[in-house]
Amino acid sequence: MELNAKIPEGPLEQKWDRHRFDMRLVNPANKRKYQIIIVGTGLAGASAAASLGELGYNIKAFCYQDSARRAHSIAAQGGINAAKNYQNDGDTIFRLFYDTVKGGDYRAREANVYRLAQVSVDIIDQCVAQGVPFAREYGGLLGNRSFGGAQVSRTFYARGQTGQQLLLGAYSALAAQVAAGKVKVYPRTEMLDLIVVDGRARGIVTRDMVTGKLESHLADAVLLCTGGYGNVFYLSTNAKGCNVTATWRAHKRGAVFANPCFTQIHPTCIPVSGDYQSKLTLMSESLRNDGRIWVPKKPGDARHPNDIPESERDYYLERRYPSFGNLVPRDVASRAAKKACDEGYGVGESRYGVYLDFGASIQRLGEASIRERYGNLFHMYDKITGENPYRQPMRIYPAVHYTMGGLWVDYNLMSNLDGLFVLGEANFSDHGANRLGASALMQGLADGYFVIPYTIGDFLAKHPPSPVAADHPSVKDAERGVRERSEKLLAIDGKRTVDSFHRELGILVWDNCGMARNEAGLKDALKRIPELRDEFWKNVRVAGAAESLNQSLEKAGRVADFLEFGELMCRDALTRTESCGGHFREESQTEEGEAKRDDENFCFVSAWEFQGVGKEPALHKEPLEFEYVSLTQRSYK
Amino acid sequence: MKIKLNVWRQPSSEASGRFEPHTVENVSQHMSFLEMLDVLNEQLVLEGKDPVAFDHDCREGICGSCGFTINGIAHGPEAGTTVCQLHMRKFKDGDELWLEPWRAAAFPVLRDLIVDRTGFDSIVEAGGYISVRTGSAPDANSIPISKESSDSAFDAAACIGCGACVAACPNASAMLFTSAKASHLGLLPQGQPERWRRTQSMVEVMEEIGFGHCTNHRECEAVCPKEISVDFIARLNRDYIQASLGRGSK
Ligand SMILES: Cc1cc2nc3c(=O)[nH]c(=O)nc-3n(C[C@H](O)[C@H](O)[C@H](O)COP(=O)(O)OP(=O)(O)OC[C@H]3O[C@@H](n4cnc5c(N)ncnc54)[C@H](O)[C@@H]3O)c2cc1C
Ligand code: SF4
Ligand code: FES
What is the CATH number of the domain that holds A570? Predict the structure, then answer.
């Protein structure tokens, strides 16, 4: 298989403009003859549905929640980047591009990232016009903050609820198109398979989550905007329903999956408190602007943190990285916390936690300023842990947060399957091996508002409207597969719950394919995941019936897919013997214990082609070329 | 600790429902309320019974999926908190709790604690937006907006659409929800051109789909997990009167 990224010719800063001119347009009168399916109503899906509806296409939009407004994007806290340079602090499109490529540890495509930086400025304009209440200064202009170690203030934010406000903006644009009759939303409807006819994506099979009814929807193009797969780890900061099903089903139908082992572990989350734990809660990265991270110098020190004197505390990030200190990128901060805990310095009941201390900032700035900056986060922490962070340091530990890997797409956001486009966190395109803070919201909206409206037009112009028969064998085959799978899950009637399998898989991948990976661990996981999957199919118990609202069945289907996907993730991690970004192979580190890239051998995207469950997938490589930035070892010393 | 639960069980909209008693042992005070229900559900599945259906997703108090009443109070006893953010340390060993779905004609029960809230989407579709085509926006800093206006718009925009306000209202009115959306947009300069039309149409649709009238009980404000103020209802009423008097129409 030849993977052609279709990167336009010409100098970097002109590629997108030239491409927009070169792409074909669909005649306005013809747009209403096309049907487009959009799965997912997060930032990527809602913005795409609204924009394509405005253009005149007929849209069907699907989500598993009861309303489009509840997609997981709603939970994003910290902010969204854009190269507006409103602070006059030296930001430019090129700098945002450069920071993103470098932050991604040189494993993303230059052309895609440059386009992202270019359209970032339009996103902010669009959102403000929709009424998104971004933070403002007293003069009435937009405020910014610096985020995740960036040296310029380019992050726009809406208190600690940026994702909520951006999604409500996109959702309202979507609602306007529903009112205009161009978009029909199908809430509580889950996509369970992709319909491919003659190598082209032509529809989806869905299950109505209230009645259990299966249905096929056919279209001229299908957009997957279904978010990331972080829940393969069971515990993550993702919403409980986040899943890999849509992209995994597409993968099984031929779409290649890129860089599945590139997952991001966020350094500042509330530690696990017990076996019943159902998810983890993020404490925004912005806290690191004013909090200092430390552990006791004495391993196993059980004293109350306030009783540990200054001289007996190890501010390990400030010690190891004097120039970035507490603001080193996520992957670096997470690994340092793991190291401290593995060596016995961890705090809290489980000993898997480190302190994030606001004592010094409260002294310096006063409690009122800290409350103004982080009040809602402190409140949330207090609610969850019952501890008051104004009086004692927070306890934090890294948790799975975001997945850089996803379905492979070309410059036009189309997968290797004709007519299948993938947007937002579900694709692999822009963040390389590590995503910078506040860049996922930017990418989701860039894809949906500003990229897909152009690129889909080019595809559709070349593929005139042509309906597929509802009884086409490919449609019937996909429907049958979905029905048989549900029946099979319900019939097993074994002795273990779905969650018990999910938890076991989560621990397995967290231990072997989490913050640090090595050959022996990955090989072990590759042996144990198939065993667990076999046991699942023999011994799981799924309650209820197919034709009703059945949350056990929904979960079982998702976990069954994670049990296949987890294997691919570990395989990808095993073959990439270098360390880069969030992928830390213990065998590949510098003398100081930092991640060591191997550009000679691994400067490529790994794109995996499905060959059958339990069969080794085929690896295709898309080489990455860097013309505008030079590859250097990241250093935050 | 040990918690006694009486959970509303109803297999579907058409079926009738009843309370079913259950006991959850070994509840840790660090658990969230929903984690306690997870434990119950694991138990039920292993006993060959149907688990309790309840809506939830983010479990961080922001998506607005979760919600049921605990001893008659929407989202339970802690103020300003969704049920997913409620923790068991707020309860004592031996407590007996009654869990019920939102009760409102416009929110039919789908199963157990799950109701159909699509009426809220219809209200937003009636005008809860600013019409701005993608790509047609002026530079974001071209309209300065005072921090005060922007902050109060935000206070209204914080609504998560959970429906607790409707469940708590003796008239099952959706005025707090509707006024929050209308005020968020109506307090901003960008929202002015469509202000009167929006107000009228949202209120009309709200009534059409069967939500009740507001008669100032203020129960909505008391249970709202985002502490949305009833002042927004007063604001909506004023705008509605003005709109009915023909303001803004040509
Ligand atoms: C706690 C938290 C905080 C974050 N904070 C930030 C931040 O400050 N800045 C930043 O830039 N990024 C942040 N991120 C990352 C960012 O929020 C996400 O990457 C981004 O919102 C993903 O958007 P999306 O549109 O791709 O997908 P999502 O918002 O995840 O939407 C997925 C959609 O797909 C639907 N779906 C999924 N599967 C199916 C299926 N099988 N059938 C039907 N529908 C389906 C869902 O219903 C949903 O509508 C944060 C993430 C988390 C977890
Ligand atoms: S106003 Fe409050 S109670 Fe009502 S839907 Fe919004 S957040 Fe929920
Ligand atoms: S589950 Fe999202 S608000 Fe409770």
Answer: 1.20.58.100
Q: Do A281 and B60 lie within an 8 Å CB cutoff?
A: yes
State how far residue A417 is from chain B, nearest Cα, in angstroms: 28
Total domains in the fold of chain A: 2
* Three-state secondary structure call for residue A306: helix
Residue A531's domain spans which residues? 473-598
Q: What is the pLDDT along chain B (250 residues), one digit of tens a residue?
A: 999 999 999 999 999 999 999 999 999 999 999 999 999 999 999 999 999 999 999 999 999 999 999 999 999 999 999 999 999 999 999 999 999 999 999 999 999 999 999 999 999 999 999 999 999 999 999 999 999 999 999 999 999 999 999 999 999 999 999 999 999 999 999 999 999 999 999 999 999 999 999 999 999 999 999 999 999 999 999 999 999 988 755 4
Residues with CB under 6 A from ligand 1: A 39-45, 62-65, 71-73, 75-80, 162-163, 190-191, 225-227, 237-238, 242-243, 245-246, 282, 401-402, 424-426, 438-441, 444
| Ligand 2: residue whose CA is nearest its atom 1 | B177
Using CA atoms, how far residue B36 sits from A276, B22, B23, B83, in Å, is 8, 12, 11, 11
Catalytic positions of A, please? 330
Q: Which residues of chain B does A47 touch, with a Cβ-Cβ cutoff of 8 Å?
A: 134
Domains and CATH numbers, chain B: 3-110 (3.10.20.30), 118-245 (1.10.1060.10)
Please give the single-letter amino acid code of residue A484.
E
Sheet holding A58-62, edge to edge: A183-186, A58-62, A35-39, A221-224, A420-422
Model pTM score = 0.97
Question: Which of B41, B45, B84, B90 has the most A C-beta neighbours within 10 Å, making it the best mutation to test the interface with A?
Answer: B45
Torsion of Cα atoms, B137 then B142 then B147 then B150, to 10°? -20
Q: Are A440 and A110 in contact (CB under 8 A)?
A: no
Q: Determine the Cα–Cα distance for residues A109 and A321; give it in Å rounded to an integer.
A: 28
Do A387 and A482 reside in the same domain of the chain? Answer: no
Q: Which residue of A has its CA nearest to B148?
A: A138
Give the best residue of A383, A395, A550 to mutate against chain B (max B CB count within 10 A): A383
